[in-house]
Each structure stands twice: as structure tokens, then as C-alpha cells.
Amino acid sequence: MIEPDIIKDEEMEMLLRDIAELYDYDFTQYTRSSLRRRLNRICMLDKFTSFAELRYRITKDATYLTRFIEEVTVNVTEMFRDPGFYKTLRDHILPTLGTHPFIRVWIAGCSTGEEAYSVAILLKEAGLYHKSLIYATDINPGVIEKASRGIFQAGPIKQYSENYMLSGGKQDFSSYYMSRYDMVKFDEALSEKMIFSTHNLVSDSSFNEFQLILCRNVMIYFDKDLQGKVLKLFDDSLQSLGWLALGSKETLRHSAIEPRYKQWQGEKIWRKTS
Amino acid sequence: MNKASTEILLIGGSAGSISVLLEIIPYLDKALSFPVIIILHRKAHPESNLSDLLKFHSSLPVAEVEDKTSLSPGYIYLAPADYHLLLETKSLAALDSSEKVNYSRPSIDVSFQSAAVIFKQHTTALLLSGANADGMEGLLTIASYGGTVLVQDPVSAEFGYMPRQTLLNLEADAVLKPAQMATFINGLHKKEQP
């Protein structure tokens, strides 16, 4: 195993600057502790014996960048992750959206799409899906491609089904997908109103106005300055009285946009008040 | 023991370690000169009230770590369920929701190694009872930086596998029974070298 300190801080800084200069990806404001682990992991997976080798490959071989982005970003997700969060969405937030003639939801950093399908199921069960659009975006083109297919490993389905029930789901969860060998394919009716696209929270701007934005466990990888910028982007993209949902250990507290937002009963969901 | 001063103490544990923690923390010195970070294996759902339990037994303030938590000496920090806890700087903890390590998130190895990179020889870590191998790699990393490595005496552990395996693979600076741990920890901040 490669030692955790194979990557020297100065080398990491150089690599991040190289990537920002050569390509459209800027990781210079990502937390270093996580990046160090991801870079270490990619050295191991792709059998680089030194960090210099990885740096050489990235700077000389543009085709390797896709692979690099895929591995350096974290793509761990699940359906109905933190069931209590989805229960709140189901019971309290969606009903407030029901009054809108049209509901636009942005799932920022959607990874392989498990959250998009979870939200689609909630909207369906609330009778709102026909007048909704779910924009699911991620920095990583590889995961967007996967998400758009709606095919997932069958392994964690039992856990998802449990999560779904804890979130207040009343249907038979298996009615939403077809099993085939070790994969499940979700009902195409669920992806009818989904739009998948790459979007880089660091460099891309607002592209629509939303009533609900979910960005969970994405900003933990950003430093405070970048978090501030991304929150501003969400603020610019939220309609008045719209909702912003973050991960269970993330917060709007002490951010510049906080004065315009009201937290929903201690949950990680905030409503834009003006 | 002629070690560098301790700037952080990490305690990792799995099965059978909560009772040990409850035996340690009521006796920790309020004036500890370093933060204490606890990484414990536990289920992600339902949200357990481990931090409330620790608060109840501790005279030191206890906080569950959130995104970018600032660390202060004399505080006990708990790694949240379902996240890895990393050290970003000497005074800032970060969270990471990436793949499980040793089937665990939080993983003890991940936090121990992350701390070793930041605190180097000023890292101290204590590994408690457990039935899997998480924590050993982390202790090896800390030892390789010259940090201080402490292991629960396997005969005193409800699940001795974790400490026993660890002791087969590295030389601990001390092997401690639960009743000795608080005194040992309280002594750490007095070990300043002239």
C-alpha cells in the first residue's frame, strides 16, 4: 500500500494549479485532506509508483483527465439517504410546492442519480410529478451518463427499500424497478421529467430559477470561500420562498446569504424568505 | 518514554469500546492541553444518541463534528455516523462521505492516518476493544511519524481481537487497562520536552 504521505503538500498544490491552467477544472479550493486521500487512491488504482508520475500523465495526456475527474470526485450516494430528511421533504416541503403551477428542482452534485430517483418517487407519490422538472447535474460526465440510464446495482436495494419505508413510503418499493441479474432498472416513467447535464459548481453560473435545490454532501469538500461562492450561486438560482437542502452535517450558518433564509425546524433545509 | 508533546489525542474503538470510554471520560482533566477526537464504529440509522451519552458522563464539553469544525483544547469531538473524519489543519476537522474503509464509515484508520499527516510526531492515539482490524494501519502510520501509540490491554477488552492483532504488528508505547487510561491521558500534556 502507498503511504498516506506519498503526496507532498507542494506537489499537490502544483498539480492543482496545472489542472486549473490546462483544463476547465479548478480544485484549488477543495479541502486538502480529502483531496490527498483521493489522489492517493488514484495512484493506487492506476499503479503510479510516484506522485510525479501521476502529474506527468495528467499534464501530458488530456484523455486521462476524464478518468482523473471520475476518481478524484466522491461518488458515494444512496437512495433515500438519511430517511428522516426525505420524510420532512415528503410531509412538509413538497406540499408547499404543490401550490406552484410548475415545480423546478435542481439536484446539484447528483452523482450517479440515486437522489434524483428518490425525489422523483416523492413527487410522484405527492401527485406533483406531472408538473415538475428535475435538473440533475454533476461535474463528472461519467456519473451523469450512468445516472441517465437509471440502472443500479441490486446489492444495496434492500437498504434503499428500508430507507424508503423509513421516509414514509407506503408503496411496495419493488414496484418502481425491474430486477435483472444483479442490476435493477428503474421505471422509465420516473425519468420522464429528469434532465441530466454536467455543471461545475466552481466555474459555471446559474441556469434557471428553482423552487427546490438539493446539494447534499458536496460542499463538505470545498473550503469556506468556495462554499460562500456556491451558496451565492444557489441564492441566485432560488425563487423567493424556495427551499435549499444541504447534507446532514452541513449548514448555512455564518454564511453571507443566511440573513435571507429561515431554517425548517432544525432540519438541514432552509427557506428563502425574500 | 521520551516522546514529543501531544497536540491531539485520538481514540478509536469498535465492539465493546463504549463501556471503556465511559470509564475514561469522567476522569479526564478539564485543563487538557489538546483536543480529544473519538472515532467509534456505530450504525448510521437510526441516528444514535452517543454524543448525548458522552455528554452526560463528561465534564469536558462534547461536540459531534460537523463540516469544518474548529478544534479547541480540552474539548471532546465525536466523529459523526456515516462520515469519515479528517484533519484539514491542526485546528480544523473536515468530513468526507467517500467509500467505507474496513467496512466502516467512520473508519478509525482514515482518521488516524489523516491526523498523522498533519500532527506528525505530536499525534497520540489509543485503540480500544473491537472485533475487526480497523485502526491497526492507522496506528502503524502514527508510529512511523514518531507519534505515541496506545493500545487497550487485550485481556481487559470485551473483544480482544483488534488490540491483540495490533500488538502482534507494532510495538505500543503503552498497553493500558481501562482503569489506567484516564491517568495516563491526563499525564500526556505534562510530557513537554525542555
Automatic annotation (TrEMBL), chain A:
Limits of the CheR-type methyltransferase domain: 1-252
In Pfam terms, one family for this protein is CheR_N
Q: Which Gene3D superfamilies does the UniProt entry name for this protein?
A: Vaccinia Virus protein VP39 (3.40.50.150)
Q: Do you know which SUPFAM superfamilies this protein is assigned to?
A: Chemotaxis receptor methyltransferase CheR, N-terminal domain, S-adenosyl-L-methionine-dependent methyltransferases
Which domain of life does the protein's organism represent?
A: Bacteria
Q: What is this protein called?
A: Protein-glutamate O-methyltransferase CheR
Species, as recorded: Niabella yanshanensis
From TrEMBL, chain B:
Enzyme Commission number: 3.1.1.61
Reaction(s) catalysed (UniProt annotation): [protein]-L-glutamate 5-O-methyl ester + H2O = L-glutamyl-[protein] + methanol + H(+)
Instruction: List the InterPro entries.
Output: CheB_C (IPR035909), Sig_transdc_resp-reg_Me-estase (IPR000673)
Q: Which UniProt keywords apply?
A: Chemotaxis, Hydrolase
Could you name the active-site residues?
A: S14, H41, D134
Q: Which domain of life is it from?
A: Bacteria
**Signal peptide range:** none
Where do transmembrane segments lie in this chain?
none
Q: What is this protein called?
A: protein-glutamate methylesterase
Origin species, per record, is Niabella yanshanensis
